[in-house]
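Subject: Sanity check before I submit

Could someone independently write out the structure tokens for this chain? I want to compare against mine line by line before I put it in a report. The sequence has 221 residues.
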Amino acid sequence: MTLTLHYHPLASFCHKALIALDELGLGFEPVVVDLFDPASRAAFARVWPLLKFPVLEDADRGATVGESTAIVEYLDAFHGGGMIPADPDLAWRARMWDRILDSYVHVPMQKIVTDAIRPEGGHDPQGVAEARAGLAEAYRFLEAELPADPWALGADFGLADCAAAPALFYADVVQPLGPGEPRLKAYLDRLVRRPSYAGVLADAAPFFPMFPLDPKPRLPA
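---
Independent answer below. Compare away.
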């Protein structure tokens, strides 16, 4: 098989790549990475010394691609198309929303989650408070500005929606969307029911107990 994805089913940025692979109908060899297992960690380090997943290997093209956005862009360019609009005016908007969702939702959400994993005495309460404030501001901005009807750019599901799905799914766990974000909540509801993300979440569900905060993530009702 030409494509191999190194990932973990619980990891939010990995969800972004998994959604794109499913949307494009691409088969791949899954390699689940356990960074706490010495053998798995060493094997992954030989592929990607930075030890950050997801990482895509394309044997036919001799390419190793790190970073979730780059993976989606790569798949779009060389394995099907459709994740990035052909229209340049829509393409820059897709990339802009991808960066906004990663930078202002995904990153602060991960700050909150990773702080919970830190040992006693290593926590960063100020950083967590700043991350929560940033999430609240991002929710307000997205509620007002994200044209999510039904998807980030309108009728076609693409890069921005791949970014939005895991970012909003996990953010809603650590800092639930409230009554002031009905459009954003409706968008998240559509995302988790999209077959490509519903399948990713089903595969992740056995790992939900590993999530370091309560409440734990759960499959949509």
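---
OP: Matches mine. For the report I'm noting this point. The mean pLDDT is 96.
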